[in-house]
Known about the structure:
Elements: H1 9-16, E1 20-23, H2 25-29, E2 35-36, E3 42-43, H3 48-59, E4 63-67, H4 73-81, E5 86-88, H5 94-105, E6 112-115, H6 122-125, E7 130-133, H7 139-144, E8 147-148, H8 157-168, H9 172-177
Parallel strand pairs: 1-4, 1-6, 4-5, 6-7, 7-8
Antiparallel strand pairs: 2-3
Amino acid sequence: MGIHPAPSPEVVQRASRVSVLLIDVDGVLTDGRIVYADYGDELKFFDVQDGAGLVFWNRVGLKSAVITARRSRLLKRRAKEMRIDFLAQGALLKLPAYERMLKRFRVKPEQVCAIGDDLMELPLLHRCGLAVTVPSGVQEVKAASHYVTQRPAGRGAVRETVELILKAKGLWDQVLQRYQ
């Protein structure tokens, strides 16, 4: 993977306050491609390291959420596998779902890390403590983000973000202990 620049002190500080990870799906949790099968079924490609990162996140007692404009049975299944605590599908306007999530988890916006790649996520990125995007994120999203992942969308960007936050919070060693 090579050596990547360390996150800035500001990013580490913001990450240390995060207790909720909010993820977009297409273009973040997946590489953005949508494949349709003959019978109208939709295929998505998920990264196993992203999934493992979300399991680690859950094991240390933190909350996770997915807010997406699309609807997919596949996503419902994958969210269950990854132990996502809050799932909002069909959220064309994401802010109302975000407000519901804040109330459900009883957290302030500065406790949320939002990961997005396109214009629909801008309202969330402007209202969270740590705004993250992927290398393929649109320019406006990059400008609104505190951190751009090294790993691409659908190929470990979520895992990279999980590790960054857990390390900033001093929780990464707790994850590692399980595997030593």
